[in-house]
User: Fold this.
Amino acid sequence: MKIELEKISEHVGDTGDFIKLNVDKCVGCGNCALVCVMNLWLMRGGKAQLKDDYTQKCLECAACYSVCDVGAIDFSYPAGGTGVVFLKG
Amino acid sequence: MIVVGAGPGGSVAAKVAAESGLKTVFFERGRKPGEKNSSGCGLGPRMWREFPEMMKKLTPEVAPSLRKAACVVNHYLNKDMEEIAIEMYYPTESVTYEPAKSFITMNCYRSEFDPWIAGIAVEAGAELRTSVLIKDLVKDDKGKVIGVQTEKGEKVYGKVIIGADGVISTVAIKSGLNPRWRPDQITLVPQYDFSADRKKIDQMYGPDGLLADAADGIWYGTNFPAAYQVIFGDGFHIGLGSWMGQWTANPISFLNKLVSCKPFQRMIKAIDAKPREVQTHLLPWTQEPVRTYTDNVMLIGDAGGFPCPLEAEGVFPAMETGKLAAETAIKCIADGDTSKQALKLYEEKWKKASVGIEFQAGESMQTLWRHLMFSTQSEENSMEWFIPLWHELRGGFYDWSEPHIVRLRQIIKKAQEYLPQAMTFFSKYMMPVLTDAMGDQISLMPQLMKLMEGMRPRPKKK
Ligand SMILES: Cc1cc2nc3c(=O)[nH]c(=O)nc-3n(C[C@H](O)[C@H](O)[C@H](O)COP(=O)(O)OP(=O)(O)OC[C@H]3O[C@@H](n4cnc5c(N)ncnc54)[C@H](O)[C@@H]3O)c2cc1C
Assistant:
C-alpha cells in the first residue's frame, strides 16, 4: 500500500525558520535523516542538509533534534498558530 | 498561576487552580487546543475514577468520535507477516471498579478531547491564550523563574509556573529541570489515521458487531515494533513506536510494512478504510520521571516524563499530576512560600498517587516491554521465539492432524526448542517485575513449588 504522506498532512501560516543546522558541529552521522518520517534531511558531502521547503512539510516531532548526539540541530516550535495541524490527532 | 500548554495536563491544572480562585492563565501554541497533538488516543478508566464529575460530561454530543473499547484484540503475525493467531480480552474478573469492568479505554480524537477539557478550565475561570508560543522563562537576578516570555517578547509574571508543555518542554529546558532527554527515555511514534465507514465499523466493532466493542487492537510481529490500533466513531489510528536509539530504518517504513500486509488489508477492506492523516510525535517512556520541581516551577505530564513505564499511557498521568501540581500551588501561594523546599510537597503528593505507585516498578516494567515487543530491531529479538511459542501453547493442541497424544509430543518438542530463550527471558525480565509486585518473599512461589511436587508422573496402568 503506497501512502503519500504529503497529501495527508496539513500546514497553515508562515512558520518562519524553526530548525537550524550548525554545519560546523555536524559530523554527518545521518541520525537525523534516518528518523525523519517526512524525509526532510539529506546527506550531502558528509553533512546533513535540511530541505528548503521543510516548513511546509515538517510534522514538528523534534526527532532530528533529539537524535543529534553532537547538538548540531537547533529546534524550536514554529510561530504560534502556524505550522502543522492535526485534524484527527 | 501560569500554565504553559493546554493539553490534558495543563487544562486540568488550570481548572483546579482557577476553581480555587487563583488568577490563572494558560498558553497554547496551537490556534486551538489539540491541533498540535497526536495520541492513540485511548482514555483509561482511572480518568473516570479520579475525575468523575468532569468525565461524566464527555459525551458523543461534545465528542462525536467517541467509541467504547470494551475489549482488546491481539493480532499475531509471523515473520512472513501472515496472521497466525487472534485473541480477544475483555476486562478480567479481578478488576475492582466501574467503569474499568466495562471498558479498557474510551476512544476520542485529541482534536475533540483537548478543546473540550480546555473549555472546562475556561468555564472555571482560567484565561486561555491560543496561538501563543512561549519561548523563554523570565528569571530574577538570583536566577529564579518568575514568569514566561512569549515569542513576541511579551513577559507575563506569575507566582507559580507549571510546565505542561509536553515532551519538548520549554519550561523543563529553560528551568534546567530537564535540559535534554537521553535517547533511552523517549520514543518516536509515527501514526496514521484512517477514515472508515461508521456503519461498517459498527457491524464489526460496535456493541452489536461481530467482535462486540473490540475497538482496541495490538498487532504483534517479529519484524516491526508492536503497533496499537484505536478505533473511533468514523476511523481509526494505527501507530507504533520505539526508543530514539533503536531505529534501524525510517520509523514510518515499519508502519508501512504493517498496513500493507494481507491481514491488515483485509481489515481495511472490511470497514472501507482509507488513509486520512499522518502524524508523528515524541513520547517519553522512562523508568522514572525527571526532576519535577524547583523554585516556583513544577513539571506535569509529558514534560515531567510521567507516561506509565509499561505501556506509556499518558493522558491520565498528565491529568493526575496536573491536579496535584495545582493543589500544591494553591497551598504554597496561600502560605506565601513557593520555594523549592515548599514545592517538594508536589513530589510527595505524586509519589503517593496512582502515577507514583506505577513508578515503584518503573525500571522492571520498562525493561520488560523494551526487551519483548520492542526488541524486534535488535539481535535479541524476543518476538522471534515468543510468537511461535505462544502460538504452539495456545493453539497447537486443538488440531486434528494426528492423535492428540502425538500432537502433545510434537508441541512439547517444539516448545523445548524455544525454552532456553524463554527461560532466560523469564529470569532476566519477568522475575524483576514479579519481585516488584510481590516483595522479596514472592508468596506465590512456595505455593507453586508445592503444586509442582504433586505433579510427579503417575505410574502407568498396564
Ligand atoms: C502517538 C501517541 C500515542 C499515544 N497513545 C496514548 C493513548 O492511547 N492513551 C494515553 O493515555 N496516552 C497516549 N499517549 C500519551 C499521551 O498522548 C501523552 O502522555 C499526553 O498527551 C500528555 O499530556 P500533556 O498535557 O502532558 O502534554 P501534551 O498533550 O503534549 O500537551 C502539551 C501542550 O502544550 C503545547 N505547547 C508545547 N510547547 C509549547 C510552548 N512553548 N508554548 C505554548 N504551548 C506549547 C502543545 O501544543 C500541547 O497542546 C500517546 C502518545 C503518542 C505520541
